[in-house]
TrEMBL record:
<feature type="domain" description="Phospholipase A2-like central">
    <location>
        <begin position="45"/>
        <end position="185"/>
    </location>
</feature>
<protein>
    <submittedName>
        <fullName>Oidioi.mRNA.OKI2018_I69.PAR.g9033.t1.cds</fullName>
    </submittedName>
</protein>
<dbReference type="InterPro" id="IPR016090">
    <property type="entry name" value="PLA2-like_dom"/>
</dbReference>
<dbReference type="InterPro" id="IPR036444">
    <property type="entry name" value="PLipase_A2_dom_sf"/>
</dbReference>
Amino acid sequence: MKFSAVLLAVSQAASVADLNRQVVSAQNEITKGARSDGNALLIQLLLEFYLDDAGHNTNRAPQMLNYGCFCQLLETRRVGLGTPVDGLDEICQRYQRCTQCVAHDQSGSTVNVEGEQLACNWENGRYEISFDSGTGRVKCGGNGPCGTKLCTCDDELAFELAANFDLFETAHSSLRGFEFEDECLPSSPPNGTGIRGELQCCGDYPNRFPYHDKNGGRDCCVDKVFNTDEKQCCNSGSLVLIGESC
């Protein structure tokens, strides 16, 4: 039993080392402009790693990253529109919200890409990875908060897609005939757009998400957005009605 565990650890370490080499190579391609799909290749590498670790077919990765209304990330990255087509698409919707918050939280800061200072966003974030054998998850680091936060979003996406592999529906992949333009229609804009207020973010990465504060009418309580006219946030992170004690 111990010998089997050692073999598994050695095999896993070899896989992680190979993944690290692939990530470095991919980021070099992205930095040199050889690829125009931002960090999509990095997400594919992470997804293939988790799929392989779970015993799933890694060839499914490109189809999963060209999928539904929010997983169109690999061939042409699209901002999600409409309603997620299924559970996998909901994972990608959360991912798009996560990366939106990276750009929002790092607004005004820049990242160094080959000596050029560029805005922090999905295309420009750079990161390094290691592996935590205790959790079986990739650990993110390197190149400042922009890259680290983006890596956290990317890793969570890849891990969750692999964990929900059985939800995949071939008909929802654009590589198998799904038409984004026909199926993913924008929602009607809210009435009184100006009332929405400023964009803010709530929660911790990788589950951080954006919301509009309605000019002070909404706020974040740890990981929940609430109406400030009705409730208040306690130090414990719980919500109570205004006038009630925490």
